[in-house]
Design goal:
single chain; about 130 residues; alpha+beta; Lipocalin; eight-stranded antiparallel barrel; 1 helix; about 20% helix; about 50% strand; elongated
Length: about 130
Amino acid sequence: MKKLLYLLLSIFIFASCQNDSKLSLMNNIDGIYIGTYQSKKENSEISLTLKDGSFTENSIQRSELSTSRGEFRLNKNQMEFHVHSYLSNNESNPKLALEGAWKAELRKGKLVLSNEQGEKYKLYKQIQ
């Protein structure tokens, strides 16, 4: 009986460790990330701050600067972004802001966001 109890306990602990890594991915999402945005037409340097369900994205593309702010929600490996404000120093440039549903992967401080249009963010969490 003790062997069975130890076996069940070992299985439970092992299974819990695997699930913890996935849970901690999104539990530790808050922070400052630096990296790149890539699409078929555009590439830019990005700074993304995530905190308590709010985000600020700063983008530098060529000599153009833009900032967007809004809210985000997490659902498993999906992030949904809703922009509330957008500022750019180039009014003629179409809005380049993190908006809508994105597949999210966070591993060892690297956050990768991708969407169905082939756009991708590769961001690295900064140590604070």
